[in-house]
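ok, trying the design again with the full structure, not the truncated one.
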């Protein structure tokens, strides 16, 4: 029996999306109407001096035009999955009605695509893990990327102005980071996210981040998104979790996360739809998540 219960503070938002044509991919040191997708590079901690990471940043079409007005924008961090990079979301949406520049326009958001490395899991690897110094990715996102985006762009530099969502490994990362950092995020989402790391003890490089499961089972549970659920209690936070009905490896963990949030009486939205662990499913899901974020984040406007 499939679970489709929903707990929410608001009525279900409209999923009818009117998309407009906007300029295509470009890169620049300064966003302009026809030049709104940039790749930035920023310093991060690592095993060698001068270590950097990259992120792609997409701004709305009116971003440059409204500079004189001092208009600030909400930001959504959009995380990729295992074995991916910051290029994934752009590559898979380019040329479609869900292209990221169109999404930024439609929802009035700055969209940031971080590089989560091949298998960072968006957490800080334990000290004894291989290459631990180069896999401190909770730290990279929360202490380096977010401040860098706020420094370079006109953002609402507050939790009400930031959301985070992602697919698979990125779905795990979005829930994990939002739960642990109420000072940064006020909304999160997950598409086909890995809510419990424990069943995958021999897969996806997880042992290289957390150590062998048979030696540290408690550590694996503690680093799982499902173990962060209690941290949402008492917060004004938007949570949207979804998974495909045919996503056999991961739907059970999503259902368990839904049940856990219900047990804790934490408002959230949970959806199951036909589909598997595939890019067509995630590309289709993207506007639902961005609409969810836009409904909850502080809209673009002038600072008082």
């Amino acid at each position: 029996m499939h679970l489709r219960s929903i707990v929410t503070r608001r009525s279900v938002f409209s999923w009818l999306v009117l998309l407009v044509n906007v300029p295509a991919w470009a890169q620049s040191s300064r966003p302009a109407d026809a030049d709104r997708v940039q790749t930035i590079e920023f310093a991060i901690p690592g095993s060698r001096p001068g270590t950097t990471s990259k992120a792609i940043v997409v701004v709305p079409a009116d971003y440059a035009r409204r500079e004189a007005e001092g208009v600030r924008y909400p930001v959504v961090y959009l995380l990729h999955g295992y074995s991916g990079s910051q290029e994934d979301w752009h590559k898979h949406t380019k040329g479609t009605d869900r292209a990221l520049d169109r999404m930024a326009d439609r929802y009035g958001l700055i969209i940031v695509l971080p590089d989560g490395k091949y298998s960072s899991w968006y957490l800080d690897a334990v000290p004894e893990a291989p290459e631990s110094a180069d896999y401190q990715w909770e730290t990279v996102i929360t202490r380096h990327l977010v401040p860098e985006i706020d420094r370079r762009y006109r953002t609402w530099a507050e939790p009400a102005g930031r959301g985070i969502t992602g697919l698979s490994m990125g779905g795990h990362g979005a829930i994990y980071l939002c739960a642990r950092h109420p000072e940064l995020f006020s909304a999160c989402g997950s598409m086909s996210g890995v809510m419990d790391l424990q069943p995958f003890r021999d897969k996806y490089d997880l042992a290289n981040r957390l150590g062998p499961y048979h030696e540290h089972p408690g550590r694996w549970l503690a680093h799982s998104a499902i173990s962060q659920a209690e941290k949402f209690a008492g917060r004004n936070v938007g949570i949207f979790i979804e998974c495909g009905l045919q996503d056999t490896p991961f739907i059970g963990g999503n259902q368990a996360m839904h049940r856990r949030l219900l047990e804790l009486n934490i408002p959230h939205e949970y959806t199951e739809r036909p589909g598997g662990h595939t890019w067509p499913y995630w590309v289709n899901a993207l506007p639902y998540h961005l609409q969810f974020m836009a409904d909850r984040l502080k809209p673009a406007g002038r600072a008082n």
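Keeping the full-length input from now on. The first strand starts at residue 37 and ends at 43.
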